[in-house]
Amino acid sequence: MKKVFISIVTALAFLSTAWGQTPEEIVALMEKALEPGETQGVSMLMDIKVPIVGTSTSSLFMLGDKMRTETKLLGHQLITFTDGVTEWEYDTINKELTIQNVKPEESSAESSGSEADMFNGIAEDYDVSLKKETADAWHLLCKKSRSNPDKDDPDKMELVVSKRTHLPISLTTKMKGIKLTLHDVVIGVDPAKVTFRIEDYPDAKVIDKR
Fold first, then answer.
1. pTM score, two decimals?
2. I need a surface site. Which of 1, 44, 122, 184 has the fewest CB within 10 A?
3. What's the CATH number where 186 sits?
């Protein structure tokens, strides 16, 4: 009987360790799962809901200094490439390809604060609590900490983390009345996906603003 009791206690202790993570530990697991993206690249979808205008959906592909964005809104689609120095924007409706230099402030923002960076530093900059838990995911509520000096950080975010992969399932927040949701995060981006090639747009009217 004593051996059975000890076995049950051991099993409960194991389950507590495996499934009873604190919000901070869950965030740490997520950040660890995202680390390969620093060298392998990361892709995700971004929904932006603007009052009256509606919701636009963008596909983001990031690898090193390179980034590709595909944005759809009201039947319109823009495909944008950047390598931190040059930006290429292709309008699929008008078939116009606009080339311009990246502004210094935009370049520094991309290198230090891309959409993927919203998943970094959450435990340090936010007070995180477990909102609810399902069989597949943790739902976390992140409230901006009083010690967070960044005025641009949103006051509140809702983060959902997969129990299976530890990758974020979604991150939702509001900034200046605009609702932003990042979701469908995938590690690994083909370099060809984020590299601009003029031959891919043979019918484009080129507008060079450099």
1. 0.81
2. 1
3. 2.50.20.10
